[in-house]
Amino acid sequence: MAVVEIRNLTKVFKAGTPGAVNNINLETKEGEFLVLLGPSGSGKTTLLRMIAGLETPTSGEIRIGGGVVNNLTPRERGIAMVFQSYALYPHLSVRENIVFPLKAQKVPKAQHQQKVDWAAGLLGIEKLLDRKPRQLSGGERQRVALARAIVREPRVFLLDEPLSNLDAKLRASAREELEQFHSRIRTTTIYVTHDQVEAMAMGDRIVVLHQGEVRQIGSPKEVYDDPADTFVATFLGAPPMNLLEFSDVIVGFRPESFLPIDLLGASGTAKFRYKVNYVEYLGAERLLYGAIEGGRFESKEIVSRLSWTMTATYDPGSVHEFAVTESDLRFFDRHSQKRTHPRPFPWQ
Amino acid sequence: MPGGNLPKFGVSALKYAVLAIFAVLLAFPFYWMLIATFKQNIDLYNTDNNPFIFNLPPTLDHLKLLFLETRYVRWLGNTALVGVIVVFITLALSLPAAYALARLTGQWGQRMGIGIFLTYLIPPTLLFIPLSRIVAVLGLQDTIWSLVLVYPSFTIPFSVWLLMGFFKSIPRELEDAAMVDGLTRFGAFFRLVVPISTSGILTVVIFTFTLVTQEFVYALTFISPESQQMVGVGIPIFLVRGDVYFWGSLMAACLITSLPIALLYNIFLDRFIAGFTVGAIK
Amino acid sequence: MAVDDRKVGVFMFLPAVAYIVLLIGAPLVLAVLYAFSDARIGSVGFHFVGLENFRSILQSPSFRAALRNSVVFTVSSQIIVIVASSILSIVLEAPFRGRKFVRFLILLPWVAPISLGAIGWKWILDSIYSVITWVLVWAHIFKPYSAPMWLGEPGLAMASVVLVHSWRLIPFSTVILLAGRTSIPKEVPEAASIDGAGFWRTEFLINVPMMAPIISVAVLFGTIFTFTDMIVVYILTAGGPFDSTQVLPSLAFATGIQGSDLAAGAAISLFLVPVLIVIAYFMLRVAYRAEVA
């Protein structure tokens, strides 16, 4: 049974301007970790806030657990939310922060202690219960925010970019904690981020959003290997997919598919003469930046990603024979930017 | 919506009702001043007439009396003169002081800043008696120069506090770059920081001016002759003959004097709040 | 920080500090000296008289009334101001059309010079021509000419003074509380709402505690402005009827300047100091807490 269903949801902030969210349809699967991924302005946070009840939709329907919730206040929707800044109550101790939703929902006092202990135990913050938020580190604050969210045993978890306020080092470990947390709890979770690495690492499915519209919904593998349009193709993966524009078709191939021809063989591949402009050495891999020789793409930057096992030298200025296996080519309609079926490579 | 367990329509209506009540209660005396300014005396002093409307046609008599037969214009002039001079003195002293405290003296500077601010809490009603003596000894009794001397004592602390907050928001790198380019510290202050602080300076000018126009105790204590008085004291004290108040002209004077100050204040309100609350709000 | 910088710094703030020391510090010291002397306006020297001034004013019923009134007026008006400005700050928080104009209206009592606002009220509360009286007569609550004298009867006069003080301070307090309210990160009340808190719970358990430093600032300033003010009383009632509205500052003025008894006036005004010290202490605490947080 789908826990959260979105039907034709639209949000227009100012009449006459394009909507922040345009006619979105979505269904979560029970217990899944669903990521709303998109650049800023894509509508992902607005969408999340509408699910939470913090913004009113202009039109469309939101259902949680089968019932329409459009007219329900946040407290009545059975959801819990973790904000980007965690929004911990600064004047209350960690324990009081976690108890707050229980008091607000009039949970009998006798149960408070046990629930707080359970939530704190789940997140390993038992020792922090008497501290104030300002005495906690970023990672600890995230755990408290999660404890406060889980203590009510909500039907849905909503997370609004909770990792973006952490510094880079902390982000990786906090991300891991979130993943472990989800696998323990298994509550349906909707997670907003602009970071495609996070989305790929954490999501069971990813909803790629752009300018208020859904571009693709799929598992990480699906959105990466089978992008529905050029936006999804270039948004996921860094460095992004290389795109070559022809008169009626756009051909794309990922940097890791663009390899020296001696690694791929001559049959079943599209071949290129590749001039290397500069090289980035990143330890486990190298990135080559260059251009395709002898044709109209000489000013277009093409990236190749070589793993550390490929030891040949590529000096700036040198030209090499590179190729892409045909099955790794992706084709997009030039006018609609959408994915079309494979066809013979239009060049050579 | 947060806090939404009250019916939406009811809340809006309640909100507007509360706002209306407060707006009326607070602004009512000024409406009253407006009406009284233009009401003929026969109408004004007739308790049978509805006071909220003009029962007889409005008149300019009170305004004429105010401008032509009282010293009101003179008081305005006195106040303006004192205001301008005090603004200059205040700026000349507070700008460098605020800069020094914001930039140059570290922890100590912060403490001194609070110290200066605390002096703002020493009221005129505590100091006016000894100051009246000092003013007399200096021979400034009954002149506006007594006020020119004394007013900066309360305009400077507030201005220093305001400007300190303002200077702190200017990135240090600007002055560092200037000093690398060859300016001295004072040069950097004078040629770089001051010119870009026009908005802070303007705020200080406006508030110093309003503080001067609102002051009452010192003006009342140091100055007796009607022609030397400030407008805040002149109006309540001198617009009477014997026991009889010229209410029409009085109200006119109040209104005309208050409105420009009100307009100026509104424009600079946010800065003003910052001056009071810097530190308490992070 | 270069040593050079420090020198320049001292040089830059010395003039301001000197001004303050000379025009606030020196008079303060002088006030204390006067309080222990027999100085009068017009007298040349003065002699030390020990606690004589204090003894005599403490016995004076005028003084006792003034001291009591100062406290009563300040506390009453502060209570009214806090309640009113809290309500107003809630109502003004969300933007709406005409908000700037409403703000302008609401600010008027604070921005107008105190003396002018007071004289406006004097007219409104006039014993014969009061518009309040007119409305009450029109509503048949009073018979004509039998309405109370708002500034002429002790109880009513006191209420009037408290009213005018509150009227003047509500805008100031509202504006400060509003600033405090908008400084609460939006996500915190939203989190409370999601956690299940309704309007009252969010307001009293979340917003108010988070605004505590700001509320303190508003109360502390409001207290000072009321406690040390002589203008409202001087203009509305001149302390009467029968000293029922006399307060410490207006009594100090009446005694020291109008009565020429500088020493007694100074002694009376010194009674303001304990309250000021207490307030200064609390302000420092608020500032310290804000730095630590």
Name the features:
heterotrimer; A: 348 residues; alpha+beta; Rossmann fold; OB fold (Dihydrolipoamide Acetyltransferase, E2P); 2 domains; six-stranded mixed beta sheet; five-stranded antiparallel beta sheet; 30% strand; elongated; C: 293 residues; mainly alpha; MetI-like fold; 14 helices
Question: What is the CATH first-level class name of chain C?
Answer: Mainly Alpha
* Poorly predicted tracts of residues of chain A: none
CATH topology of the largest domain in chain A, by name, is Rossmann fold
Could you report the average pLDDT of chain A, rounded to the nearest whole number? 91
**What is the mean pLDDT of chain C?**
86
Helix content of chain C: over 70%
CA(first)-CA(last) distance of chain A: 51 Å
The H-and-E topology of chain A, N to C, reads as EEEHEEEHHHEHEHEEHHEEEHEEEEEE
| Major sheet of chain A | 6 strands, mixed
Total domain count of chain A: 2
**Shape type of chain C:** flat
Task: Write the element-wise H/E pattern of chain C from the N-terminal end onward.
Answer: HHHHHHHHHHHHHH
The Cα radius of gyration of chain C reads: 23 Å
Any idea of the CATH topology of chain C? MetI-like fold
Q: Tell me what the CATH architecture of chain C is.
A: Orthogonal Bundle
Shape of chain A: elongated
- Give the low-confidence spans of chain C: none
Which superfamily, in CATH terms, is the homologous superfamily of chain C? MetI-like
> Which strand order spans the largest sheet of chain A, edge to edge or round the barrel?
6-7-8-3-9-10
Give me the secondary-structure topology.
The complex is a heterotrimer of chains A (348), B (282) and C (293).
Chain A: E1 4-11, E2 21-27, E3 33-37, H1 44-52, E4 59-64, E5 67-68, E6 79-82, H2 94-104, H3 109-123, H4 138-150, E7 156-160, H5 168-185, E8 188-193, H6 196-202, E9 205-210, E10 213-218, H7 220-225, H8 230-235, E11 242-245, E12 249-253, E13 259-260, H9 261-264, E14 269-281, E15 285-292, E16 302-307, E17 319-325, E18 330-333, E19 339-340
Parallel strand pairs in A: 3-8, 3-9, 6-7, 7-8
Antiparallel strand pairs in A: 1-2, 1-4, 4-5, 9-10, 11-12, 12-18, 13-17, 14-15, 14-17, 15-16, 18-19
Helix pairs in contact in A: 2-3, 2-4, 3-4
Chain B: H1 8-38, H2 41-44, H3 61-69, H4 72-104, H5 106-119, H6 124-137, H7 145-150, H8 152-168, H9 172-180, H10 185-196, H11 198-214, H12 217-222, H13 231-238, E1 240-241, E2 244-245, H14 247-267, H15 269-277
Antiparallel strand pairs in B: 1-2
Helix pairs in contact in B: 1-14, 3-14, 4-5, 4-8, 4-11, 5-8, 8-11, 8-15, 9-10
Chain C: H1 3-35, H2 52-59, H3 61-93, H4 99-111, H5 114-124, H6 131-138, H7 154-182, H8 187-195, H9 199-210, H10 212-227, H11 231-236, H12 248-258, H13 262-270, H14 272-292
Helix pairs in contact in C: 1-13, 3-7, 3-10, 4-7, 7-10, 8-9, 10-14, 12-13
